[in-house]
Amino acid sequence: MRVFVTGASSFVGAHLCRLAAERGHDVTGLWRRTPVKLAGVEGVQGDITTARPPPGTDVVVHLAAKVMADDARAQNRAMLDAVLGWGLPLVYASSTVVHWPVVLRYADSRIEDEARVRASGLPWAIVRPCAPYGPRLRAHTPAHRESFHQLAGWVRRWPVIPVVGTGRYRRQPVHVDDFNGAVLGLAERGRWGGAWDAGGPEPLTLRRIIAELGRAQGRVPPVASVPTWAAVRAARFVPGMRPELVATFAVDDVVDPRPLAEASGVRPRPFDPREVLADR
Asked: Which has the closest alpha carbon to 185: 27, 19, 8, 5?
C-alpha cells in the first residue's frame, strides 16, 4: 500500500511513517519546516495547499492541524480543501475534543471538518486520539514537543507539579503505535465510512499519570492545585497557550476503545510510563 502522510514532522506523524514502513508499505511523509529523515520513508517538503501525493498513492492519512493559531479554523479548512481535492481514500485524524461539553473554537473546527469528510463522497475513516504517548525517535525531533515528554521532564526536575483544578479529571492515554496501528489497520482492511475514538484501556486521572511518571523516574513530587481561573489568566502571558483551551483542562476525556479495536484489529495496551522515557 502506498501511503501519503500529512503532518509527518509531528510526534504522531513521524511514528506513523516509521510504523507504516516497518509494515512494508511505501511511505511518503509531507513536512513543512522540520525534515523527516526515517529509514524506509521518503520525506518531502511542501505546503499541503500546493503539494500533491505521489502517483499511485492508495491512501492519505491527514494528521496536520492547527490548534493554537488565531486563524486555526481557516488554516484547517484550507488544508482539508486541498486533501479532499486529491480525490483519494482518506483517514482523517480528528480529536476527542469533539465530545467535550464545552464551547471551544478548536472543537468547532474539528466538528466542521469531520462533517466535510463525511460528505466528501470519498472512501473515508475518522479516528480521534485521546492523549497519544510513546518513545522519542532518535532519528527525528518533532516540530512541537510532545506533551507527555514535557510532563515527564517537569516531574523529573520540578520540586512541585502544578495542575489546573483538582487534577482528578481523567484522560485515556493511547500508545502512539496502537493509534497508528489502528489507522493503518483500517486502511489495510478497507474499513471505510466510520468514525472511531482511540484511547487506552483504562481512564487515568492526571494525578495518577504524574505519579506513574514519577515512580518510573525514582521520585514522585507533590502536586499543587491551581484554580482554573488563575490558570486561565496566566495563559494570556504564556506564548502558544490560549485561555479558552486552558479553561477546558479539567474536563474528563474518556472514550470507549473497543469499537476501534474490533474494526482495526489493534487492541490498545495499558499505559506504561517507561515508554514515555524510552528512545527508539
From this structure: 19
pLDDT band at residue 238 under the 50/70/90 scheme: low
Residue pair 143/34 in contact by the 8 Å Cβ criterion: yes
pLDDT for 243-266, tens place per residue?
Answer: 777 777 788 999 999 999 999 999
Share of the chain above pLDDT 70, in %: 98
Contact 229, 148 (CB under 8 A): no
- By C-alpha distance, which of 73, 88, 244, 94 is closest to 179? 94
* 2-277 CATH pick, 3.40.309.10, 2.60.120.260, 3.40.50.720, 3.90.1170.50: 3.40.50.720
Residue pair 156/218 in contact (Cβ under 8 Å)? The answer is: no
3-class secondary-structure state, position 56: coil
